[in-house]
Amino acid sequence: MHPLKIFLKATSQTQAEFALKVGTSKTYINHVITGFKLPGDDLIEAMIRESGGQLTYRDFRPDKADQFDRIKELEAQNA
């Protein structure tokens, strides 16, 4: 089950309620949950903020999260 769906169930929120809070549509939230769409960085940021950090970047884009982790490691090595 998608982490966003788990979060919505745990917080007793509908997709429509959460969509309104993060500035998107219920349909788009549904597409994210079903894997039909990958959210952009701005929407991911809004969802993380609205969840109080319960959702993470990795929940939505594990492929990019791994890349960001590698970049952070390289930056730390070269700092």
Overall mean pLDDT score? 94
Query: Which fold name fills CATH's third level, the topology?
Result: 434 Repressor (Amino-terminal Domain)
End-to-end C-alpha gap: 39 Å
Q: Largest beta sheet, briefly?
A: none
| Helix share bin | 55-70%
| Beta-strand proportion | under 5%
Number of discrete domains: 1
How would you classify the quaternary structure? single chain
Count of runs of 4 or more consecutive helical residues: 6
User: What is the CATH top level name?
Assistant: Mainly Alpha
Which features does this protein show?
434 Repressor (Amino-terminal Domain), mainly alpha, 79 residues
Report what the structure shows.
- 70% of the residues lie in helices and 0% in strands.
- The protein is mostly helical and 79 residues long.
- Helix 2 (15-22) crosses helix 3.
- The longest helix is centred in the last third of the chain and has 16 residues, at 62-77.
- The chain is elongated and about 45 Å long.
- The mean pLDDT is 94.
Quick take:
With 79 residues, this protein is mainly α.
Give the helices and strands, then pairings:
Layout: H1 3-10, H2 15-22, H3 26-34, H4 41-50, H5 57-60, H6 62-77
